């Protein structure tokens, strides 16, 4: 029977991810999506400590700040539209209160600094090679915070600048943890504000930069999320209503490809058990106090206790607390 799609065949990786590992996912909103899967499946995961970041230089700067654990001060902020903002952070860190803005930023920064020290794996997702430079101080920004476009200069990053700056950073990260594994991806989301042609130029530049880096460092590799979305899932039924972002079916598919590539049989088995617990947690009964539902809750608690004994490094306290609160017990 002929094939009706260009499915990307991935080999099972010799490097395996398990629940003993600590992970950071950082970069575009695709890093958010994949990070949430790791988090929901109980991996120790830090997701985008600066919020969503798109270009390689902004992502690089976030790592530099995390490594230095540099505390931001008032002069690092900009005031616009009655709010304080950081050009290095997503708008979710902005606030009408300057002290509150700095406190949120510095708390997240310190948490990331401590987390990085024990991190085993970093998923880095480059989104775009286009950057916005604030004309006042020539700073490449992560977010323009709706400041008028006339205040910025937009341009395409030079390939060699990406490679050179990231070569230095990867060396720094290896000094922190010689066993650190870095998995690069390029976001499958098309940035059509630049037009289709320039979007392709941007993505091509990112892919070349990543492959140049993985040729230099044996602790780095590339996961083809961009290719899976644009070649394997080349159909609008895999996109959300805006025809740009992958929908849940597509993200589930890419997650399954990650699972097949990086998880061994034991980890896959654990994920299956956690998935059942998550489904049970989302179950909404007609009568919470019915004998049938209480028996169901008792069964979930017993399963949780069993998993805890076998895998003590997996934190299931939230799930255990949830089921225990609504379990009243029957004799």
Helix proportion range: 40-55%
Q: How much β-strand is present in the residues? A: 5-15%
Distance, first to last CA: 58 Å
Strand order of the largest sheet: 2-1-5-9-10
Approximate shape? globular
CATH superfamily of the largest domain: SGNH hydrolase
Mean pLDDT score, rounded?
94
Q: Give the count of helical stretches.
A: 10
Number of strands: 10
The CATH architecture of the largest domain can be given as 3-Layer(aba) Sandwich
Regions with pLDDT < 50 over 5+ consecutive residues? none
- The first-level CATH class of the largest domain is given as Alpha Beta
SSE blueprint:
Blueprint: E1 22-27, H1 29-40, E2 44-47, H2 56-68, E3 77-80, E4 83-86, H3 98-117, E5 121-126, E6 130-134, E7 139-141, E8 152-156, H4 159-176, E9 181-186, H5 196-216, E10 220-222, H6 225-232, H7 248-262, H8 265-281, H9 291-310, H10 317-326
Parallel strand pairs: 1-2, 1-5, 5-9, 9-10
Antiparallel strand pairs: 3-4, 6-7, 6-8
Helix pairs in contact: 2-3, 2-4, 4-5, 8-9, 9-10
Structure explained in plain terms:
The protein has two domains: 242 residues, Rossmann fold, CATH 3.40.50; 68 residues, no CATH class. The chain is 47% helix and 14% strand. The strands form three sheets. A five-stranded parallel beta sheet has the order 2-1-5-9-10, with helices on both faces. A three-stranded antiparallel beta sheet has the order 7-6-8, with no helix packed on it. It has a two-stranded antiparallel sheet with strand order 3-4. Strand 1, helix 1 and strand 2 form a beta-alpha-beta unit. Helix 2 crosses helix 3. The longest helix has 21 residues. The radius of gyration is 22 Å and the shape is globular.
